[in-house]
């Protein structure tokens, strides 16, 4: 790539681009940052058009984000790493983009073998030789606390949004909260914003029954955290007056993730060995949700996601033993939103009937 001003970009996942952009702006001051346009059907169509058919759908979304970012002027792309085969996808995406004629640099900031602040620092330092470790550590931790604040507020929203008295009140306040984050200039200012909005969220009027229908969502991390990729499943459940619980968030994965030995202990007789990526988590959490008396579990995954396919028989056993319905969804580029909504509707009706008649059945 000829010498020119560097413009860095990265793939989307939920609202986390706010935190990523915040970190880049403060530690790579020598580089411009360009957040790709929000994901739309066009993003997915673009990504799917240039992806091998068989790859899991997060690859297609990421490729769509890269293409839109390159077309918007980016020339330095951050490869998204991750467990499972996603860790190898960067090389294929790079080759596809080069074959399409794009001129860019492709860098990996996440080393799958080495997820720690020092490894992150050495990668950022390569991009900004002036960067001191003290500055990096400060903003890295501040960004992590920002992500934690976003995740905590999200959990409050998830638990209450289905019961909002004023339609759109949670969405409106969340938008306002997210807009404030880029102006954070230290831990105190982050804490002020977080406390202020957390209190405001708790003051929003809700009409929540004492024993609402509760559904847990488990599965693969990208489809859990990028709402577009699951046809906005959490929003759909909220519209039906369901309280939603989800464990996997970025702060959970970075800091609060249980040890695999604990997950296996929680999964009990249903799982003896780790099954990779988020599969072990899905089984352990499904059992915990069943024991906590949840009305149902929704398991979501990209089509062909091996670790999550492996977790399904164990979840079915949990479903049978605890008489708790589990609804399974696979998402790909062709998933029909109408089909998803119809199945959710049926699942909801069944949960309501079970509440009334205290009967149960599984949905596959
Ligand atoms: S966890 Fe699933 S979606 Fe992610 S890379 Fe592995 S197979 Fe693909």
UniProtKB/TrEMBL annotation:
InterPro entries in alphabetical order: Dehydratase_Activator_Redct, FldB/FldC_alpha/beta
Pfam families in the cross-refs: HGD-D
Lineage: superkingdom: Bacteria
Name of this chain's protein: DUF2229 domain-containing protein
């Amino acid at each position: 790539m000829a010498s020119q001003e560097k413009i860095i970009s990265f793939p989307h996942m939920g609202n986390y681009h706010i935190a990523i952009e915040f970190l880049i702006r403060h530690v790579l001051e020598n580089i411009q940052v360009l957040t790709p346009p929000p994901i739309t059907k066009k993003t997915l169509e673009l990504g799917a058009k240039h992806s091998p058919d068989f790859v899991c759908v997060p690859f297609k979304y990421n490729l769509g984000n890269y293409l839109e970012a390159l077309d918007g002027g980016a020339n330095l792309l951050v490869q998204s790493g991750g467990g499972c085969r996603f860790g190898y996808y960067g090389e294929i995406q790079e080759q596809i983009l080069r074959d399409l004629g794009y001129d860019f640099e492709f860098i990996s900031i996440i080393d799958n073998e080495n997820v720690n602040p020092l490894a992150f620092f050495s990668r950022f330092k390569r991009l900004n030789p002036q960067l001191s470790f003290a500055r990096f550590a400060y903003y890295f931790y501040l960004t992590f606390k920002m992500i934690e604040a976003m995740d905590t507020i999200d959990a409050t929203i998830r638990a209450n949004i289905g019961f909002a008295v004023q339609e759109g009140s949670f969405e409106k306040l969340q938008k306002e909260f997210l807009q404030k984050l880029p102006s954070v200039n230290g831990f105190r200012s982050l804490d002020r914003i977080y406390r202020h909005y957390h209190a405001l969220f708790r003051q929003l009027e809700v009409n929540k029954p004492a024993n609402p229908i509760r559904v847990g969502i488990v599965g693969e991390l990208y489809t859990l955290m990028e709402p577009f990729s699951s046809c906005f499943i959490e929003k759909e459940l909220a519209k039906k007056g369901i309280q939603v619980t989800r464990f996997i968030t970025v702060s959970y994965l970075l800091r609060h993730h249980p040890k695999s030995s604990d997950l296996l202990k929680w999964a009990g007789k249903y799982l003896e060995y780790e099954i990779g990526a988020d599969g072990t988590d899905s089984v352990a959490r499904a059992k915990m949700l069943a024991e906590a008396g949840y009305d149902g579990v929704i398991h979501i995954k990209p089509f062909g996601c091996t670790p999550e396919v492996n977790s399904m028989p164990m979840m079915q056993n949990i479903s049978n033993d605890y008489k708790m319905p589990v609804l399974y969804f696979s998402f790909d580029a062709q998933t029909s939103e109408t089909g998803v909504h119809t199945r959710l509707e049926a699942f909801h009706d069944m949960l309501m009937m079970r509440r009334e008649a205290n009967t149960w059945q599984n949905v596959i």
